[in-house]
Backbone:
């Protein structure tokens, strides 16, 4: 049940993400992150879809990814004894958050360069399918029961036992629940309150500044200064995990190849080019045949 | 209807209490740090003064939509996590939706705020913010591992994922979880050193290195909101630790005024003592680089967490 739900949500957000990249590629002509970045002002709908998909990917509430992951964890912890898998899944989920931020930052956030001035929003025919998928993701976050119904029916037909499901409440075997309705409600309420006080009240007085108008320790960046930070984005992480990089598969295959070559090198020494050695080989062969004449080798 | 009114009142009361306590703890810590460093230090209510000053500033410039959303998301994360933790054990005044969410949800919700700030800091285009976000997220991957290991160990040991039940079990058996599963407790404690961003793990917001990292482009009301969100977050994590490892506070059988006040008093005492651990550790340590911090978290704390999980299984 959990796995099927997660598979469906995964398919949805992967599709949406690929659409996003396609839209960017169509508009910008390239997806090289060192060349284009800071597209959020120019392609806001695309950014919205990408944001929703990344939140679903990382499994953060309140969207559908969290529902799938919650059920997966509950199933693993309560039913099976495979605790190592739980730890690995948690780690992969946190690391997913880390690398998906790279995707968002590379394409949409960050510095705006002059070469990207001409990029406009993707055409409507590309936006509408993306938005449909994004709205689906949001809906599955709040009402996972929409997807539980077909899945439970299918499992019933396949012969699994009757699965308990509910429209917006996730219940696990031990009785604890995670009510997505309340979760989304609390998030929505807080969002509205704080957003009103913070932004909308003072909105008229603010003006938008470009990304070059920033505080970099007292210096003011000029127009042509390149402040893009896209290369080697996770250098600290790479440095931290450096011991793991030392043993790569390339080295293993190379070592294996070298070992086999050494064996062949050794056996090649039979062909010494000396006619007397070859005559010796023939004599030795005849001797061996004569010695083992009556054993079952020569029968 | 009256029940609903009481619930809403309790929710607002809890928020204000968490906010006030969090800011006061920050103020006390600033004073103590100053005394340790042989100076007088700001008064204990300095954090409130800072907040009033920041909130009274008008913002002239804006960095785009995500820049507006970043402090909002931090507050959302803090308050939502607050709503789903039982502040006092079984008290009628502060239950706050704690029956409707469990530990796994809390684990994921804590990440939500960091995501918001990362996105907002990214939109400003400041390379300092971007570097700060990279370091912060990498460090978060570091400390999440022992934290998750400790919590999974607890979940397995007591076969429950609800904070309420874990506190109740400690109440029933009379033994704090800190002693029932000491390896999990140690792993979680070492992970909490990373969460509070005191030395040696304060590379994220290092003022002399990065111009304050991710928060370098936020000012005025936004910075004030982020500060208060951070204060609520600190209090929430402390309360979670106290409930999971130190038996929580409050008496489930009694909901009168006196019992509530006593419960709050015990909670404040326990959380403050627990808060002193990362603060003490921070006074004497220099700063780790990011890769040193990540390797630290993946070393002993992860090993302790794995031993804790094995302890829980058998």
Residues:
């Amino acid at each position: 049940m959990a796995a099927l739900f997660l598979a469906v949500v995964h398919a949805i957000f992967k599709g949406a993400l690929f659409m996003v990249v396609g839209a960017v590629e169509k508009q910008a002509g390239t997806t090289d992150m060192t060349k284009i970045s800071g597209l959020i002002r120019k392609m806001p709908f695309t950014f919205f879809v990408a944001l929703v998909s990344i939140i679903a990917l990382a499994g953060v509430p309140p969207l559908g990814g969290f529902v799938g992951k919650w059920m997966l964890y509950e199933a693993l912890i309560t039913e099976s004894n495979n605790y190592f898998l739980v730890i690995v899944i948690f780690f992969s989920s946190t690391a997913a958050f880390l690398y998906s931020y790279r995707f968002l930052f590379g394409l949409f956030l960050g510095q705006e360069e002059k070469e990207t001035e001409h990029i406009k929003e993707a055409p409507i025919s590309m936006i509408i399918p993306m938005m449909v998928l994004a709205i689906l993701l949001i809906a599955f976050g709040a009402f996972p029961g929409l997807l539980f119904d077909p899945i439970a029916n299918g499992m019933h037909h396949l012969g699994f036992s009757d699965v308990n499901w509910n429209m917006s409440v996730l219940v696990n075997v031990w009785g604890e629940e995670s009510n997505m309705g309340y979760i989304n409600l609390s998030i929505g309420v807080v969002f509205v309150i704080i957003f009103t006080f913070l932004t909308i009240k003072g909105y008229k007085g603010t003006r938008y500044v470009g990304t070059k108008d920033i505080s970099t320790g007292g210096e003011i960046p000029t127009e042509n200064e390149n402040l893009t930070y896209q290369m080697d984005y996770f250098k600290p992480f790479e440095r931290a995990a450096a011991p793991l990089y030392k043993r790569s598969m390339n080295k293993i295959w190379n070592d294996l190849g070298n070992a086999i070559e050494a064996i062949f090198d050794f056996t090649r020494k039979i062909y010494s080019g000396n006619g007397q050695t070859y005559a010796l080989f023939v004599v030795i062969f005849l001797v061996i045949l004569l010695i083992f004449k009556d054993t079952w080798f020569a029968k | 209807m009256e029940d609903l009114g009481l619930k809403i009142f309790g929710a607002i009361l809890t928020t204000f209490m968490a906010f006030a306590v969090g800011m006061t703890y920050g103020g006390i810590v600033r004073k103590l740090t100053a005394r340790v460093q042989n100076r007088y230090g700001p008064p204990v209510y300095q954090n409130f003064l800072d907040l009033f000053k920041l909130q009274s500033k008008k913002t002239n410039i804006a960095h785009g939509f995500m820049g507006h959303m970043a402090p909002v998301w931090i507050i959302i994360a803090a308050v939502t996590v607050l709503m789903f933790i039982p502040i006092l054990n079984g008290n009628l005044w502060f239950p706050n939706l704690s029956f409707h969410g469990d530990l796994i949800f809390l684990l994921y919700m804590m990440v939500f705020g960091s995501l918001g700030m990362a996105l907002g800091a990214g939109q400003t285009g400041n390379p300092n913010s971007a570097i700060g976000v990279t370091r912060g997220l990498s460090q978060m991957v570091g400390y999440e591992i022992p934290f998750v290991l400790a919590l999974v160990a607890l979940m397995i040991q007591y076969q429950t994922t609800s904070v309420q039940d874990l506190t109740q079990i400690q109440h029933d058996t009379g033994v704090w979880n800190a002693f029932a599963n000491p390896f999990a407790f140690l792993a979680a404690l070492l992970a909490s050193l990373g969460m509070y961003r005191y030395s040696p793990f304060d590379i994220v917001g290092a003022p002399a290195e990065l111009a304050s990292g991710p928060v370098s482009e936020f000012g005025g009301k936004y910075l004030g909101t982020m500060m208060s969100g951070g204060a609520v977050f600190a209090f929430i994590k402390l309360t979670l630790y106290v409930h999971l490892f130190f038996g929580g506070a409050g008496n489930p059988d009694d909901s009168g005024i006196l019992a509530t006040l006593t419960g709050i008093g015990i909670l404040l005492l326990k959380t403050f003592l627990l808060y002193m651990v990362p603060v003490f550790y921070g006074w004497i340590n220099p700063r780790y680089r990011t890769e040193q911090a990540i390797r630290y978290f993946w070393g002993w704390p992860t090993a302790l967490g794995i031993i804790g999980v094995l302890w829980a299984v058998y």
